[in-house]
Amino acid sequence: MRHQLLGTARRFGVGFAAAVVTTALAAAAPFPALAAATGAPGELSSLVDPLIGSSNGGNTYPGATLPGGMIAWSPTSTTGDQTSTGAANGYEYGATRIRGLSLTHVNGAGCNPGAAGDVPIMPFVGDVTSSPSADTKDAVYASNFSHADEKATPGRYTLGLASGATADLAVSKRAGVADFTFPADRPAGLLFRVSNSLNGSADAHVDIDTVHRKVTGWVLAGAFCGRRANGGVNNRKSYYRLYFSASFDRAFSSVGTWHDSTVSPGSTTASGGEGYATGADRAGRGSGGWVGFDTTADNDVHMRLGISYVSLDGAETNLRQEIAPHARVADVAKASARAWDRELSTVRLDGGTPSRRQTFYTALYHALMQPNLISDTDGRYWGMDQAVHRLARGQRAQYSNFSGWDQYRAQIQLLALLEPTVAGDFAQSLYNFAQQNGGVWDRWVHISGATHVMTGDPSAATLATFYAMGVRNFDYKGAFDSLVHQATVPDPDELSDAGCPGQCVGQRPNLAQYMSSHYAAQDACHCWGGAAETLEDAVADSALGQWAKLLGRDEEAKDFEARGAYWRNVFNPATGYIQARNLDGSWVSPFNPASDLGFAQGSAAAYVWMVPQDVRGLAEAMGGRETAATRLDAFFHTADGAWSVRGGDALRYDPTNEPDIHAPWLYNSLGQPWKTQATVRQILDTSYGTGPKGLPGNDDLGTMSAWYVLSALGIYPRTPGSAGLLLGAPLFPKAVLDRPGRTDIVITAPDADDTHPYVDGVRLNGRDLTRSWTGAALTLKGGRLDFRLATEPNTTWATDPEGLPN
Asked: Do 733 and 749 meet the contact criterion of CB atoms below 8 Å apart?
């Protein structure tokens, strides 16, 4: 044990056929011995491929960033429309033309464009003779590239362009350095496209200081998901200003600026935003500046850059504090690799194939990219009330980028498990935002903005889970009281349809009706979908109830436990599915299990399983565990028994989105854990992998990657608000979870390989475990899980009805 948190000395960031069911029990065998070696953490960053997930809708980005970093320096691609990009976060592997290298990104967001992509800086070969903003098709001030000329490693990104220019970037947490090279026989320069954030901008500004060889400026932006049809107009608003300061090692040979279609050679200042529209409604608008260089004798340009959400001075201070004055790209890249090595060594693996190790450590890399810093080195940050704040005593960083509807299901559990101090600072950060936002906890926070994206109350589930998993470095009593208030006291915004259906402003829509009817009425809920809202709120309330119990708040625990069962009010016995209801109690019809009516980004067939807090109750409602298990079989298989776990069928499992990602683990609660083992292994092997298509869909701020990490370790969160873990079959012979300030968790499975996907037995701290789950003690106190794996399913282990989870 050697850890503290982000920003300290420790680290910068911190088909199975029907016959399988009846296979005879494999003969019990002793647990095999395993060598004590646990791998070499110093080489872990070399196993990461940041390009995994950059195609197939994964929406990851390959650029330079650190664990939890503020800066994420990565390409903005173009497909011939200056107001759009190849993918949600500016980069799609198949789009091999870029218009700049942008300073900020969000990992795996689902709407296109997603967020950020601020201040694209474009190495340009040629004379600037027209306004880059007037280049609406990205025909002139952009360049093609080949993946053969691209290299991405943790903390460093290098790209050669067809124009002959190259860029080599490396970063710290809030700053970066770059080497740009240009052909010696042509004009060379850098375009600072200050207004051209992924979603546009309200305003932007650039200043060029020829005496001090500096370019500074800012962009006023926001509007996450601001272009989507469902609620986009409501969300086209600004909520942060990103400042940057770039300095150079050589003088400028030329300068100029532009605004809209006007280009002004020799000018050193310009302003103007693009707005938040799209296509022709925005094309041709914006501002920026350029600096040119004489490359006849020296074709290399070195740049140092800092960013801040507080001020220009904050950007320059961040740069001074984090990167030495004469540090080169190689120096910063070396430090970046060390930071990622420390972060990735929180899980040390033995064995496994090279491709599985690469898939695993890249997933861990993506999972621990967030939360992201928004506080400066001096502790100041821009709050949700659009004012400057300073970290309170005891809080070490203010974090943001909370994709709550996604993350509460897997990513936040992994964060609490591996980085509890960061988790606590994140919890405090969300509480700070709520206090600055009139007591409202927004479900999707981007930088300092409440975006309202998605549905439910994921903050309640998130903070309850943090507390259950032992996170204590936040004001948990104040946060609990605030979340209880949000769940029990109606707010005027909850009766608004602004932003609906995708970005409804009410965080507990029509709460008074919900508390009266005990479900969200489809025709009166002011929400995305009444059935989904009911399920989400029931999960959140169950988590609050568990938290209340841990705090000794017995009456609140009882009340919220009862509310956790409200899912029953949208389960229609006549159809056997979760179904939306109207205010008068009637079921919304006609009903089709493949339809998303009443749901959010999923069908009734997917959402029927979203009752992780009461799987026993759900099974009873379906007619018993055997009936429920048979239905679950059909969720993962076609009628002929073939696997169906890749998505694309509304009646079956979809690994690309969150509502049903826990479904493979439900067999543990249904008394058939061997089916969890087989199903999870099938998904791990077919939906995930190496290469740009290695993620099944949007990474959603590390959620899909966290699912892989946890599942590959043979563990998965039991339910939000709990520290318990469900058990599966590990992919690797040994894993050591080296946790800050806590005892390690050691997981061994000596026979782990492609031919041993089943669990034959488990020992917890040396004692035989006859359940397919653990209680809180392993998470809180550490310990050892030893798995005996088998080639055939053990259909008697962990099947006692008295020992089933939930």
From this structure: yes
**Alpha helices in 657-740, H assignment, sequence order:** 673-686, 703-713
The 10s digit of each residue's pLDDT in 477-508 is 999 999 999 999 999 999 999 989 989 999 99
How many other CB atoms sit within 10 Å of the CB of residue 597? Answer: 17
Per DSSP bridges, beta strands 571-572 and 577-578 are: antiparallel
- 343 membership: H or E segment, kind and range: helix 329-344
Distance of alpha carbon 411 from alpha carbon 399, whole angstroms: 15
Burial 205-226 (b: 16+ CB within 10 A, else e): bbbbeeeebbbbbbbbbbbbbb
- Give the residue from 671, 750, 748, 672 showing the smallest Cα distance to 715: 748
Contact 205, 109 (CB under 8 A): no
* pLDDT tens figures, 708-747: 999 999 999 999 999 999 999 999 999 999 988 899 999 9
d(CA 522, CA 534): 10
580 closest CA partner among 552, 608, 540: 608
314-319 long-range contacts, CB within 8 A, separation 24+ = 314/243, 314/376, 314/378, 314/380, 315/174, 315/216, 315/243, 315/244, 315/245, 316/245, 317/376, 317/377, 317/378, 318/70, 318/173, 318/174, 318/175, 318/376, 318/377, 319/174, 319/175, 319/245
The residue type of 728 is G
Q: How far is CA 367 from the centre of its chain?
A: 7
Bridge-partner residues for 288, per DSSP? 258
Greatest distance between any 2 Cα atoms in the chain: 82
